[in-house]
Amino acid sequence: MNIDIVQGHFPPPNPDGATVVIDVIRAFTTSYYAFCNGVRTIYPVATPEAAFDLKADHPDALLAGEIDALPIAGFDFGNSPWEMQHADLAGRPLILRTTNGVIATLNAFPCAHLFVAGLVNADATAEAIAALGVDQVVLVASHPTGDEDLACAQYLRGRLGGDGISLDEAVQRTRDARAARKFLSGDHPRLRAADIELAATPVETAFALRVHSGDPLQILPEPRSA
Ligand SMILES: O=C(O)[C@H](CS(=O)(=O)O)OP(=O)(O)O
Ligand SMILES: [Mg+2]
């Protein structure tokens, strides 16, 4: 298996292989906890306007996301795993707009298989990719310069049989990442240290998150292979 790591919002085409878009702080940690708390599907969108337009077609949808890490006016939630844990989401679709993970996901097709991941579900993602039997894997650290997504990509590469780093190192690099500072400083009530705690805590029983092509794209939990 050939495994490439790239950084940023523009994954290379990977028509026969598997691509994983990684966003540890916070888009796919938020997505994971949204599903844990009952969300039915996630629609990733590029802009607040696209979110409001899509909600017109899905009136039961909830809106989550950020601009400059802060909640968007008129949205129900920030891009916050803690907020996902503390809300009633059962059976609702979620429309998600974020700066890095969501934008890279929207740019990731063409690829044969697309997943999104954080450290929370990195092991489950590695298992799902290994089960595909593909020759080419692209790991996309979606923050163009941040270390948290790159560390997760390097951990995932190791889990897939390539050069890797330990889970402890990936956890520490998440806590130390520049993007984590504004949450850990306590300067803003909607930027919570609890979000970083959740982003930096792998969950052994987690599930992978697969992106299904179509208009709109949908993110759905992937059943774990036995
Ligand atoms: O809301 C987030 O955590 C980030 C923005 S930043 O890196 O914290 O400024 O968006 P994401 O798309 O989840 O990286
Ligand atoms: Mg991020």
Automatic annotation (TrEMBL):
Cofactor(s) this protein requires: Mg(2+)
Ubl conjugation listed as a keyword: no
E.C. number: 3.1.3.71
Pfam family, any one: 2-ph_phosp
InterPro entries: ComB-like, ComB-like_sf
UniProt xrefs under SUPFAM superfamilies: ComB-like
Reactions that this protein is recorded to catalyse: (2R)-O-phospho-3-sulfolactate + H2O = (2R)-3-sulfolactate + phosphate
Full protein name: Probable 2-phosphosulfolactate phosphatase
Organism: Isoalcanivorax beigongshangi
Lineage of the species this protein comes from: Bacteria, Pseudomonadati, Pseudomonadota, Gammaproteobacteria, Oceanospirillales
